[in-house]
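Appendix B: a complete holo record

For completeness, this appendix reproduces one full record from the ligand-bound portion of the collection. The bound molecule is LTUXU72L. The inputs are the chain sequence and the ligand SMILES; the output is the full three-dimensional arrangement of the complex, encoded as structure tokens. No fields have been trimmed.
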Amino acid sequence: MANNKTVIKNGRFLVPGAIKPVLSGYMTIEDDLISYIGEEEPLSEEGVQIVDGSRLLFMPGLVNTHGHTAMSLLRGYGDDLALQVWLQEKMWPMEEKFTGDDVYWGTSLSVLEMLKGGTTTFLDMYDHMDRVAEVVELSGIRAVLMRGVIGLCSEEVQNQKLAEAIAFARNWHGKAEGRITTMMSPHAPYTCPPDFFVKFVQAAHDLDLPMHTHMSETKREVEQNIADYGLRPVAHLEKLGMFTRPSLVAHAVHLNDEEIGILSRHNVGVSHNPGSNLKLASGVARVTDLLNAGVKVSLGTDGAASNNNLDMFEEMRLAALIHKGVSGDPTAVPAPQAMRMATEYGAKSIFLDKVGRLAAGMKADFIALDIDQPHLLPHTDLLSHAVYSASARDVEHVWINGKQVVKHGECLTLDEEAICRKAQESFEGLLKR
Ligand SMILES: CSC[C@H]1O[C@@H](n2cnc3c(O)ncnc32)[C@H](O)[C@@H]1O
Ligand SMILES: [Zn+2]
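The structure of the chain with LTUXU72L bound, as generated:
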């Protein structure tokens, strides 16, 4: 039997929660797991693959906790608009025309971008999710998938969509060598009436799955929620029972102290999407207050149509910068915290307990940055460089579930030329339909 063991020698490894956050040494991968990381060189063995880690910085793969991958087809289509106008006048009319093939190629384009940029796990809420899952299977990436449902339709159609969401969640949970897990996802409190939202909560209970939704992204949405239901969105969702399930909410920009308390008490995670929130002028989330209240805050890009890329290094840097800027406190969201939001907290907030850290027993989901470049020298503080100076373009290698999927910047699992061509054709097809 082939020895499925790899040893990385002479590398620098990021362990952001540790007292010494940059470890110089060795890491061993056996099958899908990290079996050793430390300063001591492991005993040499026959048949082991050796990777020379010098000039590379190894870190956990980035975890993107909110997005709509097929929306890469709408990148640049509808810039400089506020959320509701952007959704109603630009996104939804185009998305109505999306076929399964469009979703397949849009998702492929995004997954290619994410893999090459060091994202090893992503969350996706969208339609035609079987096609998204196909891309995940093929590409080797890890993903938490859910059929996102907008309930602004007849009860009959609502129930059809709910049935689709349930079937998808049931069929794909644990598939692709365990790389796919699923959740239940009503799109938002303003697109899913209360009785319909409650059906999702019930389905999540029945399937024993967590829940995800957009929440409190804009001031207008909060005001509308109060006008419609007499409650702010957090209390509204609490009343509908969402937080009786393990939950993650995206955005959570407009929160008061009481709402932060409710999220903290129910252990609800927040996916902070700084790039998308800035671009849609939604506001700046109270990330420092959330973290101080013990809320798990992770990072997401949202779709490429509101970002307009899927570079998680950029989100990390934005998170580390904007909260300093708005608070006037230079210690707000320091580099180790931004890094943990993009890795360890990300994994926790999408309920993956073996992902997000470089440690023995964890899944071998990690990336290597080429640190021998002008903008990453001198090697004063490599954790600082990874947050404040690096970008997706610095990713040299990527491993997921113990398998190398990007080597010297080239994706080994996807056909880049075909994906770029097909995605362009899909977009042109959408314009003609
Ligand atoms: C039901 S599939 C997902 C749905 O969400 C829409 N969407 C994309 N970005 C956002 C956002 O920032 N807030 C709310 N909704 C968003 C997307 O266009 C799909 O229709
Ligand atoms: Zn979104």
